[in-house]
Write a structure and sequence with these properties.
It is a single chain. This protein is mostly helical. It contains one helix and no strands.
Length: about 20
């Protein structure tokens, strides 16, 4: 559960960074 949320958060962070 947490791992999935972290993955999504990481993806969003990367997209926002770009």
């Amino acid at each position: 559960m947490i791992a999935e949320l972290q993955d999504v958060s990481n993806d969003l962070g990367e997209k926002k960074s770009k």
